[in-house]
Every structure is written in C-alpha cells, then in structure tokens.
Design a protein that fits this description.
Layout: H1 6-17, H2 21-28, H3 32-39, H4 50-57, H5 61-66, H6 74-130, H7 134-160, H8 170-198, H9 200-203, H10 214-245, H11 253-290, H12 293-296, E1 300-302, H13 305-312, E2 339-340, E3 346-347, H14 349-352, E4 354-358, E5 364-369, E6 375-380, E7 390-394, H15 395-430
Antiparallel strand pairs: 1-7, 2-3, 4-5, 6-7
Helix pairs in contact: 2-3, 4-6, 6-7, 6-8, 7-8, 8-10, 10-15, 11-15
C-alpha cells in the first residue's frame, strides 16, 4: 500500500490548482526551494504554515497532516464542518496577521536600507564640498539619492505584491497597502528634503573648483530643504485628492468623514503658513536691502583731509582671508604690468593710483594716492567746498558686517522653521485619525 505523505499531497494539490512551486512559495513567503524540499519529503512545513497551506487549497489542517482527503459520510462531514471551520478560521486569522506583520517588517527593513543610501548622499556631498568640489559633491549626492529612490520603488512594488487576495481579505489588503504607501511617501519626502539641502552646491558655487563655506552651506541648505519639503507635501496633497475624487481609494463612511475634515484643515493650515512665510520673507528681504553688509560697516571716520590722505597712502596689502585684522604679505607686482588711463594711454603706477574727491559743484577738494589696498569703500556726502567727514571701510570691516548679516539670516531661517513646525503641530493635533 502506498504511504501517504504531506509532501506528495502538497504536490498533488498544487498541480491540481495549476500553481507553480514559485507561486505557492510567494503566497507563503518562503523560497521555491523550500516548497521543492517539502514535495520531495526532505522536510515538512513549519506548523505555523499548516493553516495557511490548508486555506490555500481549501482543505482542513487534519487532511493536510494525513496527506489525503478524509472520506467521511455526509452526516459526519456536516457535524464536523462547523468545528473544522472554526479551528481553521482561528488559525488562519493568526496566520494572516503573521504574514502581514512579516511582510511589513521586511518592507520596513528594506526602507531602512534606502534611508542609509539617501543619508550617505548628504555625507558624500558635504565631504566633497569641503574639499572645494561643490559641484561634484552635488552630482555625487544626486546619484545616491536617485539610487535610494529606485531601491524604494522596487521594495514598494515587492511589498504591494507580497500579499495576495487569497490569503487576506480586501479590507486587510487595503490597510496593508496604505501603510506601505505612507511609509514610501515619507521616504521620498526625506529624499526630496535632502535634494533641496544639497541643491545650493550647484546654484551658488562660483565654479567647479570651489566649495561653499560651512555657514553658507547650512544657511542655504536649510532654506532649500524647507522649500523642497513644502513643495513635496503640496504635490502629495494634490495627488491624494485626485485619487480620492477619482474613487481610487476604498474608504468606509468614517474614513471618508475623517478625510474630508483633514482636507479642509490642511487647506486652512496651508493658507496660514503661506501667509506667515510671505510676511517673514518680505521682512527678511527688506531688512537685507536696507541693512546689507555695506550699510552695516562702521569704518573709520576722518574729519580732516590730511589724516585721510595719510591713511590712504599707507602701503597696506589687500587682506583677503584674515578675520583677526592680521595683515597678509603683499604679493609682488610683476615688472611687466602696464597701466592705462580711461582713454587708453599708458600711465605710471603713481598716476594709476591717484584719486580725487569732488564737492557738490564738481570742484576737486582732495587728491591722494590709493596705496592702501585694504580699503573696500569710501563714504562721504559732497557739500559746498567740502566732502568731510569721510568714512573709510576696510575688508576687515566688511567681514565683520557680513558676520552680523549672517546672524540676521540665521535668525530669519530659524523663524521660517519655527513657523512650519508650529503650523504642522497644530494640524497634527487637530486632525482626525
């Protein structure tokens, strides 16, 4: 008499159902090699999988363990049907929850890998920027962000196809898909924010062999990241509402009521946030125009021409990098340098450095040689026969003024972030779940 085995019974049921080993393995979240070993009786299914296998083939767990369908009378079958259905239903429910949890866990783990790839984009872009390769840093970061986006698309597709209609109900499948789609949206939002953060490396870098300073990178990075996050949120909102109006979402009455309330609340919050950001932006731009670095420079004030001329004729080199006022050594001027006047005639270096100051009537009231290369601006108000007082600002004064302006930019950036966080917090607190 031929011995009945679970593996042979599974093979017969699978062939009768027209399934391949791979299709059965995908439904159970195991490998096709595992199914092959079952059918060759080299191993047996785990006990936790017995209810799921029985439900797939429409048999009882007892029949699967026996390796054959149990011949019973009609009365016996009717008497045991309720008990069998109750046991299978209970075990099947546990197995469905287990399959959904495992599928979501696998997707979450894959999402963490995508987050790691996306985060490496920021690290790589920042590292190359500080090596004076801002443009190269942007494209390296962009490549890594694209890799993270493609990986997430693959993981999302696998997760959506991992749960079949035969194992879970339509409602359970819908809830699972919504969970993984929300996770994917958040990951893509993270990618969009990182892309905005590294975008200044391409926009504001003077050339391919220059890097942005740490302060500039952080300042512009936060501003662009904030803008990218807001833009992405608006795009998601439009797409969600389009799918809702096209009846692509399956919602019960309670879910639909929550969606409509949250949609109206989103619109109110967006309008409030847009108004706050516009007011702050106008104030920011106005303050920058009125109190720019040049207007913030204090400089040195001269009340007479002699002291002004003596200061301007000092041989002080252009001090580009020092933030402490320490003068750098003057670079030697090549002997072959030729100077020209405005008409194109050759003149001497002394003539090239000669400057004049004129009063309101165009009369020359002061003449000097501009030997002091540390001076970046001269401010005065022409009057009747005089231009006194004269304010002279150096590049050190400019750097100090730029530092003050950077503080103001930082404060406004903090205000932008606080406004977004505050409005987002209000929405999260008041929305319906």
């Amino acid at each position: 008499m031929e011995r009945k085995t679970i593996g042979g019974f599974i093979a017969a049921l699978r062939r009768a159902s027209g399934m391949t080993q791979k299709e059965l393995a995908d439904k159970l979240h195991v490998s096709d090699k595992t199914v092959s070993r079952w059918e060759r009786d080299e191993s047996t299914p785990d006990l936790s999988l017995i209810p799921a296998i029985a439900e797939i083939f429409g048999i009882s767990c007892d029949e699967l363990l026996r390796g054959e369908r149990k011949p019973v009378s009609a009365q016996t079958e009717a008497d045991s049907a309720a008990d069998t259905e109750s046991v299978i239903s209970e075990k099947g429910e546990k197995q469905r929850r287990l399959l959904l949890r495992n599928a979501h866990l696998n997707y979450t783990n894959h999402t963490l890998a995508s987050i790691a790839v996306a985060s490496s984009a920021l690290i790589g872009a920042s590292g190359l920027n500080f090596k004076l390769r801002a443009v190269a840093g942007f494209f390296v970061g962009l490549s890594l962000l694209l890799c993270a986006a493609v990986l997430q698309a693959i993981y999302l597709n696998n997760a959506l196809s991992a749960v079949s209609d035969e194992l879970v109900s339509e409602e359970e499948q819908g809830n699972f898909r919504r969970r993984v789609i929300v996770t994917a949206e958040r990951l893509y939002g993270y990618i969009a924010v990182l892309l905005g953060f590294i975008l200044p490396l391409l926009i504001f870098a003077p050339d391919a062999y220059t890097g942005l300073s740490g302060k500039s990178f952080l300042l512009y990075g936060f501003i662009f990241a904030l803008a990218a996050g807001i833009l992405y949120a608006l795009i998601c909102r439009v797409v969600h509402h389009s799918l809702y109006t096209a009846e692509k979402f399956t919602m019960d009455e309670r879910q639909e009521c929550c969606y409509r309330y949250n949609y109206r609340l989103q619109r109110i919050c967006i309008l409030i946030l847009a108004g706050l950001l516009c007011v702050t932006a106008v104030t920011h731009i106005s303050s920058t125009e009125i109190w720019g670095p040049y207007s913030l420079m204090k400089g040195q004030v001269f009340e007479d021409y002699d002291s002004f001329i003596a200061y301007m004729e000092q041989d002080i080199p252009y001090n580009r990098f020092s933030d402490t006022g320490v003068e750098t050594a003057a670079e030697p001027v090549p002997d072959s340098v030729v100077y020209y006047d405005k008409d194109g005639n050759i003149i001497t270096e002394e003539e090239a450095n000669r400057r004049t100051l004129e009063d309101v009537n165009g009369n020359v009231v002061c003449e000097y040689r501009a030997n002091n290369k540390s001076v970046c601006s001269i401010r005065y108000a022409p009057g009747e026969g005089t231009v006194l007082p004269i304010t002279v600002c150096t590049y050190d004064d400019l750097r100090k003024a730029e530092a003050k302006a950077a503080v103001r930019h930082g404060v406004f950036t903090a205000v932008y972030i606080v406004e977004v966080i505050a409005v987002s917090a209000v929405y999260i607190r008041k929305r319906k779940k």
